[in-house]
Amino acid sequence: MTNVIKTCDVLIAGTGVAGVYSALNLNKNLKIILITKENLRDCNSYLAQGGISTVLNDDDIIPYIEDTIKAGNYKNNKKSVEILVKESKDNIKRLIDLHVPFDKNEDGSLSYTREGGHSTFRIAHVKDETGKYIMESLYKELETRTNIEVIEKCRLIDIIKKDKLCLGGICSFKDDTLEIHAKSTILATGGLGGLFTSTTNFPSLTGDGISIALKNNVAIQDINYLQLHPTVLYEKNSNGKRLLLSESLRGEGGIIRNLKGEEFVDSLKPRDIVSKAILKEISKTPDTPYVYLDLTHLDKNFLMKRFPFIYSECLSRGYIMDTDMLPISPAHHYAMGGIKVNINGETNLTNLYALGETACTGVHGNNRLASNSLLEGVVFAYRCAKKINEELYSHTVNYPTKEELIDFLKERVDENYAKLLNC
Ligand SMILES: Cc1cc2nc3c(=O)[nH]c(=O)nc-3n(C[C@H](O)[C@H](O)[C@H](O)COP(=O)(O)OP(=O)(O)OC[C@H]3O[C@@H](n4cnc5c(N)ncnc54)[C@H](O)[C@@H]3O)c2cc1C
Questions:
Q1: Which residue out of 34, 35, 42, 44 has the highest number of ligand 1 atoms within 8 Å of its CB and is therefore the one to mutate?
Q2: 38, 189, 328, 367: which to mutate for ligand 1, most atoms within 8 A of CB?
Q3: Percent of the chain with pLDDT over 70
Q4: Which fold has domain 3-225+336-396?
Q5: For ligand 1, is residue 247 a contact (CB within 6 Å)?
Q6: Is it true that domain 230-332 has CATH number 3.90.700.10?
Q7: How close are the terminal C-alpha atoms of the chain, in Å?
Q8: Does the N-terminal or the C-terminal CB of the chain have fewer CB atoms within 10 Å?
């Protein structure tokens, strides 16, 4: 085993939406190393189905803030929520500029869907694979950036900490220990679904960022705020990663029913309420530990066109969405808490930042409103990148360049002396 040392301006751990979007918004003159534990695409961002929420217009600012805070049971950080909502539109525009092919109406405007807890249709989406399409657009842009080096199968195992400063990270890479020295380090290592036996998450996401933070006394917040997703396909003997049935299926008319076919809960309530009602219902029938998601009243062509991924995944498991009721039960889905950060992603350790699901901006309270996670990822990643750009700019290039200094002198020294200047 050898110890290899690399240096860069910014080290980012995680190639999900938070890690990659922050990398793309850092100055192009910064040297960035982007590492990921597994392959580039092995992240929850890639799995996102329903969409990314956005404020519709100025009249929607207050309703959207209220929906987020109501879903979060009033435990949210209000300032973070205001930022999330007010900066949503600009970031959706940035994603469109990066060629994310959001679904559109015939007149060219964005097509919005609705999910539980939203008082209106305000969720931008690409069919039922929004995360895949967003990430493919970001990865494509990544390929054009010569200042960003991507290292796959490179696991961050610790940060380098000295005198209350973070100076980079230590990684295990192949058989080597890779020490990456960086002026700024971003933890964008995602959630901790891999710790649960029943989850919608990638099993490789095991809360590494949180473990590293704990080891180094970096502050953690609300780690007990975990979210069950109510509509996950029930399969006998299925453990680990299970198939999510997007909340937008309910937004487009799907209804939750018990084994007798009765509608026992308002399907469009926030996730915690719906999950609780389902668990209560399931407890009455221990031999059949599921209820149903009913889409049979919806048009087959609509379902196949709007939800092609889920339709074919269900079909491969023997369920036809427009004729069969789908057995469902809740599973672990999301961590609202994490590494405590401020509105620019800064932790309480200088030069260490945290973004996305591993961070806690307080935006979700104790129950995340649907489709607010991808949005949190981009809004706070953009702010963090801006902050780092300012910080590193002031440290490295906040003085005249050699050429500017020569021009400055040329105007001030006599003609003969000017000839000696190296230009
Ligand atoms: C099935 C599913 C559907 C979802 N649908 C939606 C939706 O429609 N809308 C929405 O807003 N949200 C949705 N979510 C939630 C959302 O996708 C995630 O919360 C969000 O994408 C997290 O982004 P992230 O960048 O923080 O983490 P991730 O995208 O999970 O990325 C984490 C990255 O960190 C890397 N990593 C982890 N540990 C290490 C380590 N030690 N060293 C190096 N790299 C490491 C991983 O390999 C990965 O690249 C969904 C989640 C799931 C699971």
A1: 44
A2: 189
A3: 98
A4: FAD/NAD(P)-binding domain (3.50.50)
A5: no
A6: yes
A7: 48
A8: N
In this structure, are residues 54 and 122 in contact, taking their beta carbons and an 8 Å threshold? yes
Average pLDDT over residues 45-58: 97
pLDDT for 396-414, tens place per residue?
555 677 887 888 888 888 8
- Same-fold call for 3-225+336-396 versus 230-332: no
| Mean pLDDT calculated for residue range 148-177 | 96
pLDDT score recorded for residue 410: 84
Alpha helix segments (H runs only) across 346-401: 373-396
- For residue 408, the model assigns a pLDDT of 84
Please count the other Cβ atoms lying within 10 Å of the Cβ belonging to residue 29: 12
* Of the candidates 17, 14, 44, the residue with the CA atom closest to the CA atom of residue 32: 14
Q: Which residues on adjacent β-strands are paired with residue 326?
A: 293
Q: What are the Cα distances from residue 89, in Å, to 70, 85, 107, 114, 357?
A: 21, 8, 19, 17, 20
Is residue 22 lining ligand 1, measured as CB closer than 6 Å? no
pLDDT at 399: 63
Angle (CA) 139 346 389, round 5° = 60
pLDDT of residue 394: 64
The pLDDT of 382-399, averaged and rounded, is 81
**Which sequence spans correspond to the domains of the chain?**
3-225+336-396, 230-332
